[in-house]
TrEMBL record:
Claim: Hydrolase is one of the keywords in the record: yes
UniProt cross-references to Pfam families, sorted A to Z: UDG
Annotated gene: ung
Lineage: Bacteria, Pseudomonadati, Pseudomonadota, Alphaproteobacteria, Caulobacterales
Reactions catalysed according to its record: Hydrolyzes single-stranded DNA or mismatched double-stranded DNA and polynucleotides, releasing free uracil
This protein's record includes keyword Glycosyltransferase: no
Name of the top EC class for this enzyme: hydrolase
Main subcellular location of this protein, as a coarse class: cytoplasm
Name of the protein in its database record: Uracil-DNA glycosylase
SUPFAM superfamilies for this protein: Uracil-DNA glycosylase-like (SSF52141)
Gene Ontology CC terms: cytoplasm
Cited function: Excises uracil residues from the DNA which can arise as a result of misincorporation of dUMP residues by DNA polymerase or due to deamination of cytosine.
Places the protein is found: Cytoplasm
Length: 231
C-alpha cells in the first residue's frame, strides 16, 4: 500500500484514513505477511478495485460482503465476484437463482460482476485482503475501519442509495445508514447454509430497481454478459 491510488471521487472523503495509526498498523501487518512468504489475495492493484470501478458520486447500490475469496485466482476486489474462468462460488450461484426468480434473468455462465460495478453497484467487502487458503485471516487488522469510512461516505451522499445487506455481519456493519434517506434491504446470507431461510424470495433486485426509478434514476441492468470481456 505504499503508493495507494484512489479513484478521484473517493480521495477527499478517504485520503485522511491513510494517515491514521490503524492504517499504518495494517500496512505493517501486510508487509510482514508477505515477508513471511504468505500469499495475499487479491493482488495489490485490486485492493481498491471496487472503488476504482464505482466512483462515489455514481454509487446507486451497495452490496456488502465480508471477506475476499481465499482460493487461487478467485478474488479481484469485488465482493461475491470471481475472475473469468473461475467456477462460480455457491453463494453467487444462489444470487443468480434469486435473480432468475425475481427478474427472469437466466443464471450467468461465469461469476465476473464488473458489469454491475460499472453501473454504480459498489461491491464492497468489509475486509479487503485475505491469506490464501485461510478464510477471515485478515479480520480485525484494520480494514473494517477503512470500509466503515467508505460506507459513511456513501451514506453522506445527497442522493438516495440502496444498501443490500445479506446476513447478520453486513447488517451490523451498516447499522448506522440513514434509513430516512436510503433504502436498506435485509435478508439472510445467500450461502447454501442459509439461503432457504429467507434469501430466496426476498426480491432484492426488483426492489432496488423500483426504488431507483421512483427517485429518477435508471434501473440497474442485472444481466451479466456471457463474455466477461463485455463487462
Amino acid at each position: 500500500m505504499a503508493e495507494v491510488k484512489l479513484e478521484e471521487s473517493w480521495k477527499a472523503p478517504l485520503a485522511g484514513e491513510f494517515d491514521k495509526p490503524y492504517m499504518h498498523d495494517l500496512k505493517a501487518f501486510l508487509q510482514a505477511e508477505k515477508a513471511a512468504g504468505k500469499r495475499i489475495f487479491p493482488k495489490g492493484s485490486d485492493f481498491f478495485r471496487a472503488l476504482d470501478l464505482t466512483p462515489l458520486d455514481r454509487v446507486r447500490v451497495v452490496i456488502l460482503g465480508q471477506d475476499p475469496y481465499h482460493g487461487e485466482g478467485q478474488a479481484h476486489g469485488l465482493c461475491f465476484s470471481v475472475q473469468p474462468g473461475v467456477k462460480t462460488p455457491p453463494s453467487l450461484v444462489n444470487i443468480y437463482k434469486e435473480l432468475q426468480t425475481d427478474l427472469g434473468i437466466p443464471p450467468a455462465r461465469h461469476g465476473f460482476l464488473e458489469h454491475w460495478a460499472k453501473q454504480g453497484v459498489l461491491l464492497l467487502n468489509a475486509v479487503l485482503t485475505v491469506q490464501m487458503g485461510v478464510a477471515n485471516a485478515h479480520q480485525g487488522k484494520g480494514w473494517e475501519t477503512f470500509t466503515d469510512a467508505v460506507i459513511r461516505a456513501v451514506n453522506d451522499q445527497p442522493h438516495p442509495v440502496v444498501f443490500i445487506l445479506w446476513g447478520a455481519y453486513a447488517q451490523k456493519k451498516a447499522a448506522f445508514v440513514d434509513t430516512t434517506k436510503h433504502l436498506v434491504l435485509k435478508s439472510v446470507h445467500p450461502s447454501p447454509l442459509s439461503a432457504y431461510n429467507g434469501f430466496f424470495g426476498s426480491k432484492p433486485f426488483s426492489k432496488t430497481n423500483h426504488f431507483l426509478e421512483a427517485h429518477g434514476f435508471a434501473p440497474i441492468d442485472w444481466r451479466v454478459p456471457d463474455n466477461p470481456a463485455d463487462s
